Known about the structure:
Elements: E1 2-3, E2 6-10, H1 21-28, E3 31-36, E4 39-47, H2 50-63, H3 66-73, E5 80-84
Antiparallel strand pairs: 1-2, 2-5, 3-4, 4-5
Amino acid sequence: MRDGGRYLAVASMGGAPKHPLWYLNLLADPEVTIQDKGEVHHLIARTATPAEKEELWPVAVAEWPDYENYQLRTERDIPLVICEYPS
């Protein structure tokens, strides 16, 4: 989902006990390309800090309310990924 000049992604995998493979791939190589309609963005992905997640989790849940249910289904902390333009 778009959040100002960046994008957010939630590595929920429906509340599965393990992280989705795409999230593990981002940890290994954080360079991502996101296409949003006709726009292509070359960004750097990183896991939100706990403070950032606390602030941004409501943004994600507003976009897809089931994220809250997914977090309740699993013991793992579902990562929230911030994708930003390189500085």
